[in-house]
Design brief:
Number of strands: 6
Strand content: 15-25%
Helix content: 40-55%
Number of helices: 6
Order of helices and strands: EHEHEHEHEHEH
Distance between the termini: 54 Å
Strand order of the largest sheet: 3-2-1-4-5-6
Length: 154
Amino acid sequence: MSALRVAIIGAGRRAQGLGPFFARFLAEAGVEVAAISCATEKGLHETRRILSEHYQIHPRGFTDAADMLRVMTLDAVVIASPSRSHLDYLRLALSAGLHTLCEKPFIYGCDNPHAVSLQIIDSYRKQKQTLMENVQWPYVLSAFRRLHPDAYSS
C-alpha cells in the first residue's frame, strides 16, 4: 500500500501558524506531504526551505491552493491557513473530494457560522469524506493546570 498523499494549505508560519508542524507529524506518521500552498512566493520559498532543512520534506509548492488541488493527485488536505479563509478552502477541498483536517476555528468571520458549519459538515457527510477539526486545547489542559495551579482557584 502506498502512502497517503496530503497537501497543506497555509503551510507557513508567518505568525503563529502550525503548517510546518502538521507537515512534520504527517511525515513521521508515514504520510507523503506531496504539496503545500502559501500566500506569497516569499512565504512559499521560506516554508519549503524550512521543511527541507529541518524535516527532509520536499513538497511541490504553490501560491494558489485551487491550482494545487486541481493538478495534484491527493487523498487529503490540511487547512492551516488564517481562520478567515477556512470556509473558502473547506468548500474547495469538498469540491475536490478530499478528506480534510481543518485548523481551529473551523469557520470564522461569516454570517451565522453555526449554520454554515452544519451545512459544510453535512456536505462532507453526504460525500462520505472525512472532516476533522484540529482542536488541541483539550490535550494541553492538564499541562496548563500543572504549570498554573492557581488559575482555577476561586
